């Protein structure tokens, strides 16, 4: 097959490259949005890159764009400086000046100057690909570090409010301690389990904010109206210890007194969102995996703070691995893309166990189709995401697809092809609705790909053995229906239902070849290659000269064929080198101003499928695809968490390079398609 892992000159940018704007150094670039606390579909806080220059007064945002109140204020020699999120500054306070903003795979760090001292705010969302306890803990860290400097008296304050619960009209809060750790919990009143607000925030469960004194600090706390609580700290450098009842303008607040010091000092806060009953899986409540060890919320957050050093050490290793993997696969530009993608992917899934038994032998994972339609365990979303899991945590593929197989094995599902998803609205995995989307060839191929990806990466055959009858059924469906697909939806449902879709036929061909490799039945491998021969060699799915693939047999326009990717990843050789050579030659000729569109009739592209295709081509075409994606995330035109659909040409009120839709989706795992060609299961911790 024609592809290369060689570094291209266009991507040979030093890994320490930084851009400078607004008197701030952004490293490695200024992204559309920085992840702040991104650990689950309901703990997902961000700040747009274009708002970092005014970090002191700009609020964090939930992935949907609504504001989350989360503030940090510091006093230096009696003068209060707003460091982060203080939209209405208390009288007498000043704004800190941001000098540097960086992101890595797991950290977003901002350096600010406040009077004579400098602080760093490190927003650290652990990603622990194989440690389910650490990965499932629904908390994120904020560490405020006072860097060494002139001796000064310093205090650090932080607060949150009920915006984190999704409902600001009727909430309650409580404060408790465990040893030296102080823990606030805020929850809505009277909300139904498994309910969300219009922004996709959970209305049940509780927001958590906690801290403990460091070796060099003392802790004070308070709750009450935000203005009075903040003014108390601004005026006194400490909080009263009074815990007033919840009010709509109220905050819960934690303050550290670091004393008078010239040394470096740090304090760490834990922010989270806890739901005891987290997922409804076919009527049985699931809960976070961590609850097998820490069933009490306070115990869980205490452990989370205890675990900081180990979690930080793991994050350092993972940050380096992603940097090195990206660079060795393509270059520094590619590393920038991967590093910005990881938290968004793992922040879209939850690792669970049954709430009644807390039995870790029944571990499952659930993924939310964030911002597109909110489905749960959408099979094509798992397919779009799987390259990152193939590289870092292939067991997650099994944990995500096994609940789909479980549902398809019940009497509630009677179709001969694979299901699209197992619930229309996360977190309700209660079954595919009767009026839900059907993607027969798409999903039948995807479950085969995902099963084989897990098996190829781990060497384990338990998934294919357990569900062998279903897998054969879906392979047979592809054989009977895949070469001339009936009018139906594909993964890109925005295109509508189309008959004889070339990309679906490609999926059927590669799916059959994959099933042959999975099952050891060579007749399926032969059938897949025969399909591919008709599509390519006999020009069933191409133009007459074989220069490109068509969206439908015999019908323009051309289409970005991304379903070739498993053929290369699994070394199946269903399609010949000539097919890949042709696409490599063709796509640069149809590139629009900001990238290659999904097909010749539309003005937008998707980073998912551009990434899959980048893994199937070499030379200048790969250069173009990676460069376009890097330019898209660094062009300064966008503010949402990494949207995977964007305009590649001017369109009405939008310009080329602007985000189109699909903000914060976990499908960015597709960006690892190129890295996955170098090997699976590379994370050993």
TrEMBL record:
Every Glutaminase A N-terminal domain range: 106-324
Any Pfam family: DUF5127
Signal among keywords: yes
Cited InterPro entries: Glutaminase_GtaA, GtaA_central, GtaA_N
Protein name (database record): Glutaminase
Superkingdom field: Eukaryota
Keywords assigned by UniProt, alphabetized: Signal
Signal peptide: 1-18
PANTHER family in UniProt: GLUTAMINASE A-RELATED (PTHR31987), PUTATIVE (AFU_ORTHOLOGUE AFUA_6G09910)-RELATED (PTHR31987:SF14)
Domain Glutaminase A central: 331-674
């Amino acid at each position: 097959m024609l592809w290369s892992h060689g570094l291209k000159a266009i991507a040979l940018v030093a890994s320490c490259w930084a851009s400078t704007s607004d008197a701030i150094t952004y490293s490695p670039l200024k992204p559309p949005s920085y992840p702040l606390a991104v650990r689950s579909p309901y703990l997902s806080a961000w700040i747009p890159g274009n708002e970092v220059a005014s970090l002191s007064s700009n609020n964090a945002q939930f992935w949907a764009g609504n504001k989350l109140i989360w503030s940090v204020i510091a006093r230096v020699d009696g003068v209060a400086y707003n460091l982060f999120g203080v939209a209405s500054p208390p009288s007498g306070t000043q704004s800190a000046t941001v000098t540097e903003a960086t992101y890595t795979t797991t950290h977003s760090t901002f350096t600010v100057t406040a009077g004579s001292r400098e602080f760093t705010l490190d927003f650290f969302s652990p990603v622990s690909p194989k440690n389910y306890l650490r990965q499932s803990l629904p908390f994120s860290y904020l560490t405020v570090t006072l860097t060494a400097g002139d001796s000064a008296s310093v205090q650090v304050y932080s607060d949150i409010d009920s915006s984190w619960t999704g409902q600001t009209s009727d909430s309650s809060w409580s404060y408790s301690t465990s040893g030296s750790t102080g823990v606030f919990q805020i929850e809505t009143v009277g909300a139904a389990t498994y309910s969300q607000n219009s922004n996709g925030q959970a209305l049940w469960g509780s927001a958590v904010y906690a801290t403990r004194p460091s070796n060099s600090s003392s802790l004070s706390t308070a709750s009450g109206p935000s203005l009075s609580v903040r003014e108390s700290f601004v005026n006194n450098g400490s909080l009263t210890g009074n815990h007033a009842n919840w009010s709509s303008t109220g905050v819960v607040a934690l303050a550290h007194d670091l004393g008078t010091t010239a040394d470096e000092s740090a304090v760490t806060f834990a922010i989270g969102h806890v739901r005891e009953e987290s997922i409804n899986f076919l009527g049985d409540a699931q809960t976070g995996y961590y609850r097998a060890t820490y069933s009490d919320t306070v115990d869980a957050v205490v452990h989370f703070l205890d675990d900081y050093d180990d979690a930080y050490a793991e994050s350092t290793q993972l940050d380096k691995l992603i940097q090195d993997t990206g660079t060795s696969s393509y270059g520094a530009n590619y590393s920038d893309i991967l590093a910005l993608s990881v938290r968004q992917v793992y922040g879209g899934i939850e690792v669970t166990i049954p709430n009644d038994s807390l039995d870790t032998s029944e571990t499952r994972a659930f993924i939310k189709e964030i911002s597109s339609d909110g489905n749960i365990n959408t099979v094509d979303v798992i397919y779009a995401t799987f390259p990152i899991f193939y590289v870092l945590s292939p067991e997650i593929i099994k944990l995500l697809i096994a609940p789909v197989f479980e549902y398809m094995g019940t009497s509630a599902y009677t179709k001969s092809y694979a299901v699209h998803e197992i619930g229309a609205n996360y977190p309700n995995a209660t079954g595919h609705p009767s009026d839900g989307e059907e993607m027969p060839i798409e999903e039948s191929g995807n479950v085969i790909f995902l099963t084989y990806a897990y098996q190829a990466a781990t060497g384990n055959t338990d998934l294919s053995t357990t569900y062998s009858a279903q897998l054969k059924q879906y392979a047979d469906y592809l054989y009977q229906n895949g070469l001339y697909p009936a009018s139906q939806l594909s993964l890109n449902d925005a295109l509508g239902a189309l008959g004889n879709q070339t990309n679906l036929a490609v999926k059927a061909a590669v799916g059959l070849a994959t099933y042959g490799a999975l099952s050891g039945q060579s007749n399926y491998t032969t059938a897949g290659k025969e399909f591919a021969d008709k599509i390519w060699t006999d020009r069933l799915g191409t133009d007459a000269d074989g220069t490109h693939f068509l969206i439908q047999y015999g019908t323009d326009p051309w289409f970005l064929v991304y379903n070739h990717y498993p053929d290369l990843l699994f070394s199946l050789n269903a399609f010949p080198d000539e097919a890949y050579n042709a696409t490599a030659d063709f796509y640069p000729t149809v590139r629009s101003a900001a990238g290659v569109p999904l097909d010749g009739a539309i003005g937008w592209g998707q980073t998912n499928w551009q990434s899959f295709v980048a893994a199937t081509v070499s030379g200048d075409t790969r250069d173009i695809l990676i460069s376009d994606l890097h330019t898209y995330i660094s062009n300064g035109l966008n503010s949402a968490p990494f949207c995977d659909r964007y305009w590649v040409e001017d369109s009405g009120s939008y310009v080329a390079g602007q985000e189109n839709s699909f903000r914060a989706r976990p499908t960015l795992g597709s960006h690892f398609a190129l890295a996955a060609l170098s090997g699976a299961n590379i994370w050993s911790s």
